[in-house]
Amino acid sequence: MSFDENLINNPSKGMPRLQEIMRALRDPDSGCPWDIEQNFKTIAPYTIEEAYEVADAIERENWDDLKNELGDLLLQTVYHTQMAEEENLFNFNDVINQISEKMIQRHPHVFGNENRNKTSNQQVKDWEAIKAEERAKKNQAGVLDDVALNLPALVRSLKLQKRAARVGFDWPEISQVLDKIDEETKELVEAKENESQERINEEFGDLMFSIVNLGRHLKVDPEEALKQTNKKFIDRFKFVEEAILSEGKDVQSASLEEMEKLWNKAKKNQY
Asked: Which of 83, 160, 176, 183 is 20 to 30 A from 108, comparing alpha carbons?
């Protein structure tokens, strides 16, 4: 596999330049040994990691980092596509055309003859109808069939529940969701006392699933809520650490009672 050095060294060429760089990296004769050894499965974790780093840059509102991280994420698409092309599965244009067609088909109120003066609820229903047709073409008859297996568990739970709710499988009242949480909590306590670790894990998962469902009914994104709680925990614990260190003590030697007292002080200080 030969590559075009002029294209690789021309910063004005954009996407073709990046594709050529990847071709050069994957060249079995002159490419990078590490890049040559990779396959879809070994690269997939990096793809997920880069998506998280994009989200992190957005959260921090660091736009220079976002530009950099979007490039890293784009590289993942180019990487997977290059490997696919080597195996005669598809090429980059196939990827671009497929997503373009999907966007056109899923937005008939923009690119077709449908009226765009619809409520957001109607647009969601239309979207689900279109996706149902797409699933049927893929022989995916079930409402939940195309919910990605490798999504983070909290995100996937929320997505599964939303899908089921759109076809009517949902508690009509929040009080019923709360009752379910009470039920699952009691079952977890019973499992802790009498059951195996496997059963405890199962009941703990049921409880978490029910809590995600409560969040959905309250219009709370569980991932975002937990992220905020994580930050709050870090801020309060840092307060505890700094307070102990300021007294010339070591955090590891502090008693739980001391740390709890400082923790409550951090709460009062609105950490």
From this structure: 160
